[in-house]
Amino acid sequence: MKVAFAVPPGVAPAWDAVVLREGEVLHASRGGEIAGTSVVFDVASLTKVVATGTLAALLVKDGRVELDAPAVEWLPRFRGGGKERVTVRQLLAHSSGLPWWRPWFERAAADPVAGQAFLPPDRRPGDLRDAFSRGREILEEALWEEPLEAPPGTRALYGDPAFLALGFLLERAGGAPLDRLFADRVAGPLGLGDTFFVGPGHLAVGQGPCAGRTYAPTERCPHRGEVNRGAVNDDNAWAMGGVAGHAGLFSTAADVARLGQEWQDALSGRGRILDEGVACEFARRDATPGSERALGWDTPSPAGSSIGSRLGRGPLGAIGHLGYTGCSLWIDLDRGLSCALLTNHVHPDGRRPAEILALRQAFHDAVAEAGTG
User: Fold this and answer.
1) Which end of the chain, N or C, is less packed with Cβ atoms under 10 Å?
2) Who contacts 136 (Cβ-Cβ below 8 Å, separation ≥6)?
3) 175 Cβ partners below 8 Å, 6+ apart?
4) What are the angstrom distances between the C-alpha of 117 and each of 19, 95, 134, 186, 191?
5) pLDDT per residue over 122-173, tens digit each?
């Protein structure tokens, strides 16, 4: 399948695109600075569905997590001001009442131990595990202290804090760190060998799955005094060592599309690791007033969606998600397509929303134009 789309200069210094149907590769291309090279991308908030949402679905299937149970059952300090009423479902649906974002990394940067991770590279210790351990403590404390902005279940507001909380919750319920749960329960069984967290034990092209990799660079970071490359772009996730429920995953378009294929297969009862009933529950649009979200997943807006004007418009619709760095995954449930577009759009000086939206729409419209049924 020939997908003809142009990447305007400067919008995506590097990009990687894969489209699957029934496991068959309909399209695969890469370009920009990485043409002909295998590169992994910081997929930013795709972490929310590829890792956190998928793990949540697996733990629901196992009976270790109940969607309508209060999160405080796993997170004893997540209480006060109505937080004890927040359910796992509401965290997944972005209807918990938590804010969309907070610069909690600034607390870590000001701490004598955690702040070592925010020193300029030439002054930074070689071993940052103590700094990241302290940074995690600081971010957890900030989350416990953060008040709700709205009563649970009364509004839908996309944001990071809810998925930061989910990451902590899944670790308690699953009995292991988030990166290990993902490797053991998702990446391993699905053969996603190019998808992993760059955690404190093997930072920046160091050890484990990170060894020998080429990384697409992201932003020039004033907080760390460097261009981020091979280390998570998100500063809150960095303060914790690169492993968080809202960000931290690195991957390729091929692996992201295969994860999308697993969700699509599960929705028709053919999933390798996911349960059909649980997958259907996660893919259903949430009942919160005004919400266009499912559980973890987004769904297309009536107009102006990044999925473009043609995909996701059938009776079954679509589910998908975006990542701040310039990445996306959309699954057209009627056409049976899993479309992954990974870019480092933010390199080097930040995001330009109108430009990356136009590129995403052009790509997905080109997929539809290519005759995908």
Assistant:
1) C
2) 239, 240, 241
3) none
4) 38, 32, 10, 29, 32
5) 999 988 999 999 999 999 999 999 999 999 999 999 999 999 999 999 999 9
- The answer to whether the predicted template modeling score (pTM) of the entire model surpasses 0.90 is yes
Locus of tokens 């990447």: 7
Q: For 67-106, write each residue's pLDDT tens digit.
A: 999 999 999 999 999 999 999 999 999 999 999 999 999 9
Taking residue 289's Cβ as centre, other Cβ atoms within 10 Å add up to: 10
What is the domain partition of the chain in residue ranges? 14-369
Query: How open is the CA angle 33-34-39, to the nearest 5 degrees?
Result: 135
Phi/psi of residue 368, nearest 5 degrees: -65, -40
Query: Does a cis peptide bond (omega within 30 degrees of 0) precede residue 348?
Result: yes
Cα 40 from Cα 25, distance rounded (Å): 19
| Strand 220-221 versus strand 226-227 pairing type | antiparallel
Residue range 14-369 in CATH 3.40.710.10: yes
Tokens of 264: 């699509």
Percent of the chain whose pLDDT exceeds 70: 95
Using CB atoms within 10 Å of the CB of residue 368, give its burial: 0 to 12 exposed, 13 to 18 middle, 19+ buried: buried
Using DSSP, state whether 207 is helix, strand or coil. Answer: coil
- Beta-bridged to residue 28, according to DSSP, are 18
Separation CA 240–CA 219 (nearest Å): 18
